[in-house]
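Figure 3 (text version): structure tokens given as input.
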């Protein structure tokens, strides 16, 4: 009894600290964006599987690194058999799968979708915490902030206007990650002018009337999807005034990771070329 009272008193006084939780040793990710954050921060051998999308170079900025890891399709049965002690998921991951894993006493960390720089920084810090890799996360954040600062050189005054135009005529505004990339590259966004801060479908006629200085088209994929036909409309070529439109490289735009810096740099170079024109 006396020993327990002494232990309690020491804990209250801060003389004895509880043992820190051991970092997870078998981490499995079922989401493209948590795949990449985990690969950026994890210790060697800490990740036992990533989602199959992480190995797809049309979607993943780290496909080569992911190819060295076993892939999963996010099914509860296969996850259970891999015996992870932590599962990383995203806000759009299957809620049924997450609930089933939790019933099986498998810890799951669900990461929110990043829509701005603050969200990216928060998820990097959180991933560092859940993996026990805080020092690595701090270093990655410092490098990310420094690289971002080097790209933020937009001059004062009127900014050129850019329009994102993807399959089905979809565009993204300032309340999206793609919209943040446009703004950080030094452009105003036509979607905001059209009242679509979170994104939405822009009729081709409205796009033409908006007269953007730069058109940023969505990437085309093999096949004959009718959703892509709008990107081949001859009016878009006229809108570009004879210049080739910029094309979004999906792996750099999809997830809130430091890889967005490449997308910002691409648009920044396009802005500098526009501003250099007589």
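Below: residues designed for each position.
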């Amino acid at each position: 009894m006396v020993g327990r009272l002494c232990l309690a008193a020491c804990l209250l006084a801060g003389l004895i600290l509880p043992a820190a939780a051991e970092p997870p040793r078998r981490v499995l990710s079922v989401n493209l964006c948590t795949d990449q954050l985990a690969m950026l921060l994890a210790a060697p051998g800490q990740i036992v599987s990533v989602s199959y999308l992480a190995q797809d170079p049309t979607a993943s900025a780290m496909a080569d690194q992911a190819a060295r890891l076993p892939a999963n399709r996010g099914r509860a049965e296969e996850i259970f058999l891999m015996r992870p002690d932590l599962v990383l998921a995203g806000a759009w991951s299957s809620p049924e799968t997450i609930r089933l894993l939790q019933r099986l006493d498998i810890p799951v960390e669900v990461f929110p979708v990043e829509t701005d720089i603050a969200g990216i920084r928060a998820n990097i810090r959180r991933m560092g915490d859940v993996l026990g890799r805080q020092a690595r996360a701090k270093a990655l954040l410092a490098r990310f902030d420094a690289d971002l600062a080097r790209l933020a050189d937009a001059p004062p005054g009127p900014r050129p206007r850019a329009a994102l135009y993807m399959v089905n005529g979809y565009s993204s505004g300032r309340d999206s990650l793609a919209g943040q990339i446009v703004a950080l590259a030094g452009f105003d966004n036509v979607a905001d002018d059209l009242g679509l801060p979170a994104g939405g479908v822009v009729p081709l006629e409205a796009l033409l009337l908006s007269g953007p200085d730069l058109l940023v088209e969505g990437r085309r994929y093999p096949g004959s999807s009718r959703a892509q036909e709008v990107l081949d409309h001859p009016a878009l070529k006229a809108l570009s005034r004879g210049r080739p439109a910029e094309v979004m490289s999906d792996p750099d735009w999809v997830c809130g990771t430091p890889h967005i810096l490449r997308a910002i740099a691409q648009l920044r170079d396009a802005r500098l070329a526009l501003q250099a024109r007589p």
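The CA atoms of residues 215 and 240 lie 7 Å apart.
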